[in-house]
Amino acid sequence: MNGYGGRILRVNLTSGLVKTEPLDPRFAREWIGGRGFAARLLYDEVKRGANPLGEENKVIIASGPLSGVLVPAGAKVAFAAKSPATGGYGESNMGGHFSPEMKYAGYDVIIIEGTAPQPSYLFIEDDKVEIRNAQKYWGKGCLTSEKMLKSDLGEKFQILTIGPAGENLVRFACISHDFGRQAGRTGIGAVFGSKKLKAIAIKGTEAIPVANVKEATRLGKEMFKQIFDNPALKQWQDYGTPGVVNWANEIEAFPTRNFQSEYFEHHKNLSGQLMRDRIVTSDKACFGCPMSCGKYSHTRKTSKYKYNVWVEGPEYETIALCGGNCALPNIEDVAYANWICDELGIDTISSGAVIAFAMECFEKGIISDKDVGRKIRFGDVDSFAYLAKKIAYQKGIGKILARGTRDASKVLGPEAEKLAMQIKGLEISGYSFRNALAMALAYGTCDVGAHHNRAWAITYDIEVGRQKSEGKAAKVIFLQHVRPMFDMLGTCRLQWVELGFELANYPKILEAVTGFKYSLEELLKFSEKVWNLTRMFWVREIKGFGQTYDWPPERFFKVPPRKEKIFLTREIYDQLLREYYKLRGWNKNGIPTRKKLRELNLKFTMGDLPHKKIKLEIQVVGYIKEFFPGERFPLELENSLTIRDILRRLKAKEELVGMVTVNGEPRDKDYVPGDGDKIMFMAFAAGG
Amino acid sequence: MKIGINNSLCSGCRVCQLICALTCEKVNNPKKGRLEIVGHFPVPGGYEIKMTDECNQCGQCVRFCPMGALYGEDEE
Predict the structure, then answer these.
(1) Most exposed among A55, A317, A365, A594, judged by the fewest C-beta atoms under 10 Å?
(2) How far apart are CA A262 and CA A74, in angstroms?
(3) CA distances for A304 relative to A280, A307, A341, angstroms
C-alpha cells in the first residue's frame, strides 16, 4: 500500500501471541495515520472503564504516511493509551527515528495488549517479531538500557525504553528513544511499566512503496530547498527551541516558581544563545530534518558544578519547567535536572511542575522536612534531584508526588490543591497565559490536558493584542486542526510554525506518496473529526465530564508580582469557552452535539453521550436473587451510572453483591456500563 | 565531485542516505543508501559518516546535507 508500511502488528503480552493484520486502505484513507489511527484504535479497542494501569489498557503506536519519506522531518510517531495521569485520552507524540523504522519494517501501527508475566522487551526485525526476556535491563535507566540494547542487538536498531519511573508506575513516566527523544506526556511510560514492557527494539530493511517516486522526490527536494533558502533556518539549527527563552521572559510568559510569576530573573543564564556557548557539543536531528533543533550537551565537573553529564537538550520546555518553574539559576543545573529525568524516565514538563509544586508546598508549610526527609527549596538543584529520585522509586514523599499534582494535592489538602498547576490532571507546560487569552483557551481545551503543542496560540495573542477576545476561539480551533494534522501525517509541524512553510505543500506530497487525493480543507476536516473523537473519549471515560474540566487553576486569574493588572478574568474565560463550544458545534457543557457527531461521521460514538437512556440485561446468580426484581430481567435507565448507582436504583444492598461481571469481564462497582451490556451480579461464594 | 566529510557537523538526520537511495536506487529506502551514519551516544555524542565503496560521488547527498557535514572538496 503506497505510503504505508501496510500492516498492523498486534502483540499480546499476556498470551505471548503476535500477529500481523493488513492495513485496510479504507481505514487509512479515513484516518490518515499517526494520531488519527491511534485515536480511532484506542476508542475501539480499549473498553470503557478500563484501568489505565490494568491489563485491559492498550498502547497504540502509530506512524504516519509521510514518516520515512523525503519530506522535512517525516519522523513523528503517536503513542496513545488511556492516560494514567488524567484518566482520559492520553497521547504523546515523539520524533527521532522510530517512526520511519516502523515503516521500513512494514508496520504502520503496533498495538500492545495485555501484561507480560515477567519483564520483557519486544524485538522486531522486519517479519521476525519476538517477546524476549528483559530481566537484565529491568531497573536500569532509560539511557543506560538503550545503550545496553544497542550493544546487544546492534547500533542499527531503533529503541524505545522506559526507566525506573515507568517500571514503578509513576503517572508521568515517559518513553525514551534515541538518547534523548521522549514521548513525554500523559504517562504512557507507566502503561509500558504496568505491562512489564521494558523496551521495543526495531529494525526494518524494506523500502516504503511510493505511488509516484519521481514526483514525490521532486516535491520533497523542492521542500528542502525552500527550507535551505529560509533566513530563519540558521537560528534554528544553532539554538533550537531554547532560542525562545529570552522572548518568553520579555513577553512575561515564562513559568517561574510554580507559576507564581512569569518572569525569571536569571533567565539570561538559561537562554539558547548562552547554552550554545557553554554546554552544547553537537546538533542532533530527527529523521529527515534540516532544522536539527535537538542540541546535545555536556556539562563538565568543575568547582562550581558537581556533575558530569551528557544529555540531549535541554529543550525549551525543560528549561521552562525545570529551570524557571523550579528557579534553577543556570543552564548547567537545568542540564543536570534534564539528565536525571531522562535517565529515570519521567517527563521533564510534569516533573518540573510536580517538583515546583512540592517546593512551594514546603515553602508554605504544607509539607515539612519530616515529610520530605530534608529541606527543599526553589533554586536548589540538589532538592530537584532528591525529589526526582524519590518520585521515580515511589519512596517517601515520592509516593504521593508520583501521582502528579492533581492527585497529590488531593492527598495533601485544600491548601495544596490551590498550588496544583494542571488542567484535566496534566501539568501545564511552558507558557504562562494570564496575559494571553488565546493561549489560556488553548491550554483549557487541549485534548490531553494542559499541553501547548496542539495550539501554540500565544504568538497570535501577541500579534492581535493580548487583551482582545474577538476571533481567538476561532483561531484556537484552527490551530487545533492544523497542528494535529501534522501528527496524523507523521511529520513535524515546526517547519510550518517556525519557518512559515506553506501548508499547501502537504496535500501535494501526500498524494504523490500515497496516491490518495485530499484537499487541505479535507485534511483539516479529518483533523476536526479526530478532535471530536478524542473529546468523546473523555466523555465516555469520565463520569460528569464537561466544561468544568476545561478551566485553568485559580492562580491564573490572580495578578502576579511585578504586574499591575492581567487580562484573564473568570468572566472573559467563560465567554471564550462559550464561543469556542459554539463554534465547535458542542453544547454549553462542552459535549459534542449529535448533529456534529453525525456531520463528522462519528455516529459510532453517540452511545457514549451522557443522559441517553441505555438498556441493560441483568442476571443475578446465587441466593441474592431474592433481593432483586428477578433472576434475569431487562433494565432501562439513563447513561453514566455506576454499578453502585444501579444497585441503589434496584434497592439492592450493595454489600450483598460480591462480584460483578459486565459482558463476562469482572468489574468493580465504580464501573460505568453502557448500552446493551450484560451485567451479572453474584453473591460471595457461599461458604456453607 | 569528490565528497568531503566533516563528522563534527553531522546531525544524524539521514537525509543523505535517503536522497542517495532515491537517486541511485530509485527506492524510498535509506538502508540502500551508499553511506552509513553511526551514532556515538550517550558518550561522547555525535555521529560518524561512512561512505561505502559503491558511492559514485554523484554529490546529491552534498546538495541536501543541511549541516554542511558533507561537502564537495573540489569546491572548497
Answers:
(1) A365
(2) 34
(3) 18, 9, 21
Question: Is the Cβ pair B46, A281 closer than 8 Å?
Answer: yes
3-class SS letters over A227-255: HHCCCCHHHHHHHCHHHHHHHHHHCCCCC
Q: What is the pLDDT of residue A208?
A: 98
pLDDT for residue A332 is more than 60: yes
Residue B28 at interface with chain A, using a CB cutoff of 8 Å = yes
- What are residue A660's DSSP bridge partners? A667, A681
pLDDT digits (tens, 9 = 90+) for A440-478: 999 999 999 999 999 999 999 999 999 999 999 999 999
| DSSP, res A374 | S
3 state SS of B60:
helix
Spell out a b/e string for B8-32, using b for 16 or more CB atoms within 10 Å of the CB, else e: ebbbbbbbbbbbbbbbbeebbbbbb
Please say whether the beta carbons of A332 and A266 come within 8 A: no
C-alpha cell at A329: 539559576
d(C-alpha A460, C-alpha A458), whole Å: 5
Nearest CA in chain B to A309: B43
In this structure, are residues A96 and A179 in contact, taking their beta carbons and an 8 Å threshold? no
Q: Which residues of B49-75 are buried (b: 16+ CB within 10 A; e: fewer)?
A: bebeeeeeeebbbbbbbbbebbbeeee
Per-residue CA distances from A48 to A74, A456, A539, A602, A662 (Å): 33, 31, 10, 17, 11
Interface of A with B in 68-127 (CB under 8 A): 68-70, 97, 100, 104
Question: DSSP class of residue A678?
Answer: E
Cell numbers placing A460? 497570535
Note the pLDDT of residue A539: 97
Helices (H), A373-447: 381-392, 397-401, 405-412, 414-417, 437-445
Are B31 and A224 in contact (CB < 8 Å)? no
Contact A186, A85 (CB under 8 A): yes
The residue with cell 525545570 is A322
Q: What is the pTM of this model?
A: 0.91
State whether A217 and B22 contact (CB < 8 Å): yes
* DSSP character string of A431-484: ---TT-HHHHHHHHH-BTBS-STT--THHHHHHH-TT--TTHHHHHHHHHHHHH
Decide if B45 touches A, using CB distance below 8 A. yes
ipTM of the complex: 0.97
- For residue A304, what pLDDT is reported? 77
Distance of CA A635 to the CA centre of its chain: 38
How far apart are alpha carbons A77 and A40 in whole angstroms? Answer: 15
A543 Cβ neighbours under 8 A, 6+ residues apart = A640, A642, A672
B56 interface with A at CB cutoff 8 Å: no
What pLDDT does residue A683 have? 84
Set of chain B residues whose Cβ sits within 8 Å of the Cβ of A283: 9, 11, 67
Inter-chain residue contact B38 with A286, CB threshold 8 Å? no
* CB proximity A155 to B under 8 Å: yes
| H or E element in which residue A296 lies | strand A294-299
Amino acid (one-letter) located at A196:
K
Average model confidence (pLDDT) across chain B:
94
